[in-house]
Amino acid sequence: MIDLMEAREKMGQNLTRKIIQAHLVEGEMIPGKEIGIKVDQTLTQDSTGTMVYLEFNAIGIPRVKTELSVSYIDHNTLQTGFENADDHRFLQSAAKKYGIHFSRAGNGICHQVHLERFSIPGKTLLGSDSHTPTCGGMGMLAIGAGGLDVAVAMAGYPYYLRMPEVINIRLHGKPAPWVSAKDIILEVLRRLTVKGGVGKVIEYSGDGILHLDVPQRATITNMGAELGATSSIFPSDIVTRSFLNKQGREMDYIELGPDIDAEYDRVLDINLAELEPLVALPHMPDRVVRVAEKQGLAIDQVFIGSCTNSSYSDLMRVAKILKGKTVHPSVSLVIAPGSRQVMYNLAANGALADLVSAGARILECACGPCVGIGQAPPTKGISLRTSNRNFMGRSGTADAEVYLVSCETAAVSAIYGKLTDPRVLGEQIIIELPKRFTVDDSMIIPPDDSSNTELIMGPNIKPLPDFEPLQDTIRGEVLLKVNDNITTDHIMPAGAKIMSLRSNIPAISQHVYEVVDPTFAKRAKESGGGIIVGGENYGQGSSREHAAIAPKHLGIKVVLVKSFARIHQQNLINFGILPLMFVDKEQYLDIEQGDILEIKNILSLIVKDELVVCNTRNNKLYSVKHNLSERQVNILLEGGLLRHVKNKLRNDI
Ligand code: MIC
Ligand code: SF4
Prior knowledge:
23 helices; 30% helix; seven-stranded mixed beta barrel; globular; binds iron/sulfur cluster; binds alpha-methylisocitric acid
């Protein structure tokens, strides 16, 4: 590991490589090769967090070994039953026991609060949420991962990933009037698609970045998750310094950027002056067109909020647009500020009153509607949202159509009752940020030294399942065959009802693939498990490891696809499901649901990556590959990451 300053002096380095180099503990920085990096900070949220702390407890380390770890309550705060409230109480007890900051319900969405209060340029952050790269807006290398990876990082072990390629996106000029950070990332999605970022870090540069404040930069790095990117990052510069000043955290500032002659694997240019307000059509964030093309579409609902677009400047622009107007009678407008800090500052300067008086329904500072926790649209409803994902059914209404837009487009459309290009308003609204935000951390409980605290577990918090080591022969029915870009929302649906079962694997597993095939869980149980076959980018979206643990609980042994999304692939490995890919992708067409597949000699062939799948219906043989590192293969052989770490700990003693 070398010092960050030393790494900075080496010429020709991009920012991503500098931070990786300064945190490298294993491997070489060759794109595609596995590396291990030191994790400085971790974050968890309630719906992935309960598993994380059960896992940390199982590892058996008494206190976290990171510089800073924060546990947020921000996702499921509805508490429609005891389960959710019990989870929160468990998380609070775990934070106390293990030396973790605890951000109480109501304090805000993890990514927004972390950006405001804890992010530090040049540090690494690992979070059990796919939008952890939000803090890349602060010049951090921030990566989303499955819960067990985060638990292992808290125990002081490196985080392993494939050395990413680095794509440089150069932003040129000043954004055209009414073009916001959201439109910039929608343009990137339009060009690169939802799988264009897999295996890559997106690094932003160019004179255009000076026109984007830190929360706007964070909007862009946040939605890098929708590109499938490992992370996205902006340099730390005068804009960063100014944001840290406003947060009263000037001491956390360091200047950090790429060398002038930095090299990249690919460069892309975007002229901000040429952009227009954009919209992502249902049901994928990369189905992007100009708002002008869809202008006039009647809408039923508008949601302004989520970790993408809920900062002070976002909501101030909304307040200015709504001031003195009334939300259209056919529209329900809900607004969830990203943090208590945002809400407080809007209240103090009167902007909250403008929102309320326009008829906006103000929600708690939490994820809420973004992930189907309340405010589901009406039947066949059209919902405009400033969030980041518009996957089918995620809103809580199976036949709703969700369009993703900027805050400006959302606000003006709420007034007109139809999708409207904000440029109709004429001169652009300019927001003056306060010299300092009013900061109040009293809803964050810092760690103390009371490590003998008991973990408080309610009846819905079930023990972690334990899984057997890999078998030499796997034979199983293809229980489901799905297409490209299957999301974790398909595999393990979210929403308030199902998310309150996140600490109860037997119960939540009944809902696996429910939105695709309601008979899936029952069939899986009846046939004693089996195999899932899928297309490209399988498992994109959320970091929820439940999308691996719950299928594993149902007996799924193999997922055979054309290609995987990064986090989900690792989650499958962590819980001992064999993630295989077709060598010849055409063979996907040959397999039918109901076929019985057989894989033999796994224990010897997996090491050489030479596994062969036999379709017993026609005796056809398919060559498959896993492309995994030796470490990942060992995890699979041992029956998952928890067993692997425990074995390691035993050997270390
Ligand atoms: C999401 O946006 O899908 C979530 C809910 O934040 C998930 C985490 C989870 O499923 O709990 C994510 O993005 O990782
Ligand atoms: Fe929460 Fe939505 Fe952001 Fe996920 S994407 S962290 S659910 S606000």
